[in-house]
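thread: overnight batch results

M.L. [08:02]
morning all. the overnight job finished for the chain we discussed friday. pasting input first so we're all looking at the same thing
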Amino acid sequence: MTKRITLALAMIGLSSIAFAGAPGNNMVAPTGTPVIAPDSTGTWSFGLEALYMESNTNFQYATVDGGLNDDGEFQFDNESASNNWNWGGEVDVSYMFPGSSRDISASYTYLNQDGNDSVSAPDVDGILDIAGADSLGTNEAEADVDQTLNAATLTFGQLLTIGDRVSLHPFGGVQFADIDTTNKATYENDNEVTDVETVTGIYKEHSEFTGAGPRAGIDAAVHFGNNFSIVGTFAGALLVGNMQSDFNAAEVGFIPDDIDNDSYTAVVPEFDAKLGLDYMYAFNPNTSMNIQVGYEVVNYFNAESNDFHDSFAVNSVDNTTDFNYNGPYLRLQLNVA
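M.L. [08:03]
and the structure it wrote out:
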């Protein structure tokens, strides 16, 4: 029975150290319910996760002059490009030590998100470009966004059981992340008489954060009959690393602005959460597989720099935005004792 519980919970994946006493020792919870670190056998777990995610970050690339509204006021509409739903993936491996239900886990996550948008205005000069790329005669604009995440974790954990139905898995360790963002826009004039398109301006911004720091969290599972479980994860990290960014803006016929911002040390908090349904199938007493479907939310705070050149001023704006994504995932995990 203990081995079966161990295999059923090994799929939770992210792991860490918790000091919970010797295997089988009871710890009195405030409710009086026994909390046990169950006995365990040495178990390897290999996980593969398919992510289908959407990012909520946007790139505002143009403002359209809408003319006068019904109240006689000038009306402007901001246009933004956002990422599409895209596939990503995670691979991980963990080992549960015999006797103690403590484990070590390593994971790697890759996600690339991109998207595009375009807008046209019926009148000449109907579109206002973003700072540094202002040009006359612009009535069409298009933009592209591209964000890439490479992340890895190394954590240690302790499996605990509360009664017969609930399992907890606190963990802690380290996390690494590299977040690379590129936003581009092109501005054009489409002459309605000659039907000739002329590029009037370009803009490009690039930002990259690379950092590492401590990570901690907890997995939880509520077990039902027939090897089904509801599982969840709540975790966070505090990453410290290097933030660098550069910008290029040009109006056709003029000298372009090519700006490299000084890199600096940035602190980026990270939060992630999962909720899913898990099913375990045992091939034999030593081998099992978990199939899990659920939803995931991830946010890296202030992980993208958009510190662009100010008009008629020294580079005085210091702005950052979050990098985030959310969506469904499908997980397969093989457990071998």
